[in-house]
Amino acid sequence: MTATNIRPAEGKLGILTVGLGAVSTTFITGVLMARKGLAKPIGSMTQMDRIRVGEEALPYDCIVPMAHLDDIVFGAWDVYPANALQSALYAEVLNEKDIMPVRDELEQIRPMTAAFDRNYAKRLDGTNVKPEMTRWEMMQAIRKDIQDFRRATGVHRIVVAWAASTEIYVKPDDCVHATLAALEAAMKADDRERIAPSMCYAMAAMLEGCPFIMGAPNTTVDIPAMWELAEKTRQPIAGKDFKTGQTLVKSGFAPMLRTRCLGLRGWFSTNILGNRDGLVLDDPQNFHTKEVSKLSTLETILDGEEYPELYEDYYHKVRINYYPPRGDAKESWDNIDIFGWMNYPMQVKINFLCRDSILAAPVLLDLCLLSDLAARAGRYGIQRFLSFFLKAPMHDYRTGERPVNDLYEQYAMLKDALLEMSGYQRRK
Question: What is the CATH number of the domain that holds 301?
Fold first, then answer.
């Protein structure tokens, strides 16, 4: 099968991550180990999944031209100066024996200075940051970093992905975020309250011809001004917030309740997490950004307007607690109060002992490879087919559009988009 409308994945693909912490180093180390045949990319849809085409179940790269792991070149920004080897060892996600076979490659990945505003992540205090500058200057400095990386590595294409900490919540503002002209004016006026550093990265990436992925719940590319920029630059954008542990469970279990017509009275979710992300989220302002993202999942799956007798008035609470002894080994508990025949109550308890970065790393890989594919296929703007990988999928709320949070509907969207790009038409 050939996809005639997609440019081939020729040459090297640069992946630039904002952040060189636990998620990024776990992702990079896993890809490098897989290239040597020393690890399996388990959890990666692009590497492990199969899609039925006619009578066959085919891997993604037999349906559409995907970039290969051997063609990826890594780079990053980070507020701390440690190289990828030092950062991977510090994160303590992977065992040393799973890092050392690629230590030479990891040592060569040294982070560029980060465009950073400590007011957006008060728990971080790194020294590898750019000097004081306006938001517009910050964006231009990031553009130069991308240009320098392209020249130094000779990559043909670049994807930029935010894998850094959660910023404090920025409420969308019609005066600043509604149009590209207003956003640019606010940057030039150095509006630090309504222009987050992540917005500078997103704008710089798109202006440099790079797809941009928002892997945290930040208000960044989910505003009309950024959609306008994506249309203007013809770049794909995806976000927001990697769907890993508790929300992955929620997006899979909630559809079961709806499909079985079981009612919901309350869903209480709590987490303990001890890595740097947990430290940042221990600040109430940063947690609020995450809370908005996590709370949105149930609303579109268990719709009280569509099923008032079942979901009109349930109680939903989310908590994240910083607990240093756990490190990256996150634990989540869900208590779900449901009701069934004749309104009799029942309960479901879910205790997920997961590893945050182990789940996030393949999601980051898939988002980068599929965003690159989308760009080569001429797709730009919001990439709804990537909702499968995200906690709070982007959507155009101006039109009344609602995001799809049902995991199985999201998977169907992913498969259909790949088949559409390949030119294959499903039988009706």
Answer: 3.30.360.10
> How do strand 263-273 and strand 315-322 relate by DSSP bridges?
parallel
Q: Are 349 and 253 in contact (CB under 8 A)?
A: no
Q: Are 114 and 79 in contact (CB under 8 A)?
A: yes
CB 348 within 8 A of CB 338: yes
Q: How far is CA 72 from CA 13, 49, 165, 295, 380, in A?
A: 5, 20, 24, 35, 22
Residue 144 has, within 13 A of its CA and on its CB side, a CA count of 11
What is the signed CA dihedral for 149, 151, 155, 159, rounded to 10 degrees? 40
Q: Cα separation of 279 and 152, whole Å?
A: 35
Q: 281 in a domain, yes or no?
A: yes
- Length of the chain equals 428
Residue 137: phi and psi, rounded to 5, are -65, -35
Residue type, 246: Q
Q: Which residue has the tokens 């704008």?
A: 203
- Strand bridging mode 331-339 / 263-273: antiparallel
Q: What is the residue range of 315's domain?
A: 246-353
Phi and psi of 75, rounded to 5°? -150, 170
CA distances from 30 to 11, 123, 236, 287, 389 (A): 21, 28, 25, 29, 18
As for how many domains the chain has, the answer is 2
pTM check: above 0.70: yes
Dump pLDDT digits (tens) for 129-169: 999 999 999 999 999 999 999 999 999 999 999 999 999 99
User: Taking a C-beta distance cutoff of 8 angstroms, is the pair 187, 134 a contact?
Assistant: yes
Contact indicator for 280, 166 with CB cutoff of 8 Å? yes
Same domain membership, residue 271 and residue 172: no
Tell me: do 193 and 319 sit in the same domain.
no
356-399 tens-digit pLDDT: 999 999 999 999 999 999 999 999 999 999 999 999 999 898 88
Residue 37, in any domain of the structure: yes
Helix axes 356-376, 22-35, angle to 10 degrees: 70
Domain termination residue (choose one: 328, 353, 378):
353
User: Tell me, what CATH number does 150's domain have?
Assistant: 3.40.50.720
Last residue of a domain, one of 353, 371, 394: 353
Average pLDDT along the chain, 428 residues, taken 10 residues at a time: 75 98 97 98 98 94 97 98 98 96 98 96 92 98 98 98 94 94 98 97 98 96 97 97 93 97 97 80 72 76 95 93 88 96 98 95 98 98 97 89 95 97 69
